[in-house]
């Protein structure tokens, strides 16, 4: 693909900061840089730039000096976009950066579209599509685990996995086509049994990837967590203590100001979105009824329920109500106030704990049990230290939808083989699966789709 124009954008974001980096990429990047740059204290003109060197100097618009900068040229293909690229490290004032950008446009560059630098890296074959998408995930990652996963995708492990699967599929297609072409030498006898086994294996690998999506979403956005318990058990104290560890962002959901507060919390590198609700109980007051209804709705949609019990007083009817509500969901039972003499023990609640949820003794007074809580959550959602295991997670909706379609195609292969349909039927569905998987990594993909993906990027990246 030949790209003829030169693009420029602020890579660090249009906001006041210590340094702002303006990136120029394309065939004229070096020429433009030479036109506007004067090197060193003597402000010398340069007619050529040596790649991967740092130059100190000034930006000039004619006779007017705009800024004192550091300039770094990257000659193609050893640059982010694989094109000639120049980075200008300017002072990070919004006005300064705007004026330099205007100057670059005057010199023939075009302001880059969002994501266009990364798109060029892809179009120039430097990175595959899933890597390009994970660049964006890296930029957007809100917590360490999500960042680890994006970095893993960025280094191409999704690409590797998809490539392996495509190779297996291509092998089958090639075999069928060859056999149909040359039946005298290549026999298809017994092949339906073979393809059955192989498609089962491919399906199970595809399912592993699609199943990881929910965890991937949780990892990226946070575990939707609802704290339930009757009044005075310590729900607010738990929220305060969790948000006290790390900075919490409190947002009030519009229209529910009275009853639901949402807090984003980082707990040992895990993102939780904690909803502080009115609680689930029999309400008489009409306003309270609405609050309880909303709490119930939230709890129904939650990824995790933290059910808090006050272990210093006997169980109440409300506790028993909540026990039956949480059955069959994901929950952790917290026996709070472990610093006080205990009236309710783990054995006492075991008859109500029909789904065998983990039970943790905690005290918000002295912090006991909180570490165990984060460990248990980790265990429940990521089977241990996800940051350290090799499981690759799908976090991108587009990838998920393509994988699901590939699953359908391979299921067709399986049923065609079971029903003894002619081999060319198998081949058509295998080819579909091959193309669909190819679209994840940007092979055989329509330009429109590429544009759509890259327009999600921020400008300058
Ligand atoms: P909520 O109504 O469920 O939100 O409960 P709060 O968080 O407001 O706590 C109710 C009362 O219990 C407060 O006076 C807290 O100080 C107290 N409390 C909370 N956790 C503990 C604990 O672990 N130990 C003791 N002794 N008191 C606690």
Number of domains: 3
Mean pLDDT: 83
- The CATH topology annotation of the largest domain reads as Rossmann fold
Distance between the termini: 20 Å
- Which sequence of strands runs across the widest sheet? 4-3-5-6-7-2-1-8
The CATH architecture name of the largest domain reads 3-Layer(aba) Sandwich
Count of individual beta strands: 15
Brief characterization of the structure:
This protein has 461 residues and is of the alpha/beta class. It has 15 helices and 15 strands.
List the keywords.
15 helices, Gyrase A, domain 2, 461 residues, 15 strands, binds guanosine-5'-diphosphate, alpha/beta, Four Helix Bundle (Hemerythrin (Met), subunit A), Rossmann fold, eight-stranded mixed sheet
Written overview of the protein:
The chain has 461 residues and is an alpha/beta fold. It has three domains: 7-127, Probable tRNA modification gtpase trme, domain 1 (Gyrase A, domain 2, 2-Layer Sandwich), CATH 3.30.1360; 131-212 and 395-442, tRNA modification GTPase MnmE domain 2 (Four Helix Bundle (Hemerythrin (Met), subunit A), Up-down Bundle), CATH 1.20.120; 221-389, Rossmann fold. The chain contains 15 helices and 15 strands. It has helices at 29-36, 94-106, 116-123, 129-140, 144-154, 157-181, 191-221, 235-245, 286-301, 317-326, 346-350, 370-382, 397-418, 423-440, 447-454; strands at 7-10, 17-25, 37-39, 44-45, 55-61, 64-74, 85-92, 110-111, 223-228, 249-252, 261-267, 270-276, 304-310, 331-336, 359-361. The strands form two sheets. An eight-stranded mixed beta sheet has the order 4-3-5-6-7-2-1-8. It has a seven-stranded mixed beta sheet with strand order 10-11-12-9-13-14-15, with helices on both faces. Strand 13 (304-310), helix 10 and strand 14 form a beta-alpha-beta unit. The longest helix has 31 residues, at 191-221. The relative contact order is 0.13. The model is unreliable at 245-258 and 384-390 (pLDDT under 50). Guanosine-5'-diphosphate is lined by residues 229, 231-237, 336-337, 339-340, 363-365.
């Amino acid at each position: 693909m030949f790209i003829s124009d030169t693009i420029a954008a602020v890579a660090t974001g249009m906001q006041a900061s210590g340094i702002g980096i303006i990136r120029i990429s394309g065939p004229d990047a070096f020429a433009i840089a030479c036109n506007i740059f004067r090197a060193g204290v003597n402000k010398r003109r340069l007619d050529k730039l040596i790649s991967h060197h740092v130059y100190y100097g000034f930006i000039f618009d004619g006779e007017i000096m705009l800024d004192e900068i550091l300039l770094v040229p990257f000659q193609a293909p050893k640059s982010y976009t694989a094109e000639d690229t120049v980075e200008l490290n300017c002072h990070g004032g919004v006005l300064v950066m705007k004026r330099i950008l205007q100057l670059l446009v005057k010199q023939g560059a075009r302001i880059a579209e969002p994501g266009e630098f990364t798109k060029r890296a892809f179009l120039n074959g430097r990175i595959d599509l899933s890597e390009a998408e994970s660049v964006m995930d890296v930029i957007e990652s809100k917590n360490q685990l999500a960042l680890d996963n994006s970095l893993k995708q960025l280094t191409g492990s999704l690409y590797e996995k998809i490539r392996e699967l495509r190779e297996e599929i291509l092998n089958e297609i090639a075999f069928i086509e060859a056999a149909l072409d040359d039946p005298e030498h290549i026999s298809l006898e017994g092949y339906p049994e073979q393809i059955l086994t192989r498609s089962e294996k491919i399906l199970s690998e595809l399912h592993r990837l699609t199943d990881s999506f929910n965890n991937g979403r949780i990892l990226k956005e946070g575990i939707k967590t609802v704290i339930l318990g009757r009044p005075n058990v310590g729900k607010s104290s738990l929220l305060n203590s969790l948000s006290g560890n790390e900075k919490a962002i409190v947002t009030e959901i519009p229209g529910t100001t009275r009853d639901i507060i949402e807090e984003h919390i980082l707990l040992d590198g895990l993102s939780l979105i904690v909803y502080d609700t009115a609680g689930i109980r029999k309400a008489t007051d009409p306003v309270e009824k609405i609050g309880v209804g909303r709490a119930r709705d939230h709890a129904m949609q939650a990824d995790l329920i933290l059910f808090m019990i006050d272990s210093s007083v006997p169980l109440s009817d409300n506790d028993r109500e909540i026990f039956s509500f949480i059955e069959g969901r994901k929950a952790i039972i917290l026996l709070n106030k472990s610093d006080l003499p205990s009236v309710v023990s783990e054995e006492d609640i075991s008859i109500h704990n029909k789904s065998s949820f983990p039970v943790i003794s905690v005290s918000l007074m002295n912090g006991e049990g909180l570490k165990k809580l984060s460990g248990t959550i980790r265990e429940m959602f990521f089977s241990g230290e996800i940051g350290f295991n090799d499981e690759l997670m799908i976090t991108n909706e587009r990838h998920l939808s393509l994988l699901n379609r590939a699953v359908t195609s391979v299921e067709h292969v399986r049923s065609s083989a079971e029903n003894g349909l002619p081999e060319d039927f198998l081949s058509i569905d295998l080819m579909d699966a091959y193309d669909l998987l190819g679209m994840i990594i940007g092979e055989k993909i329509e330009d429109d789709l590429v544009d759509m993906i890259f327009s999600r990027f921020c400008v300058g990246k």
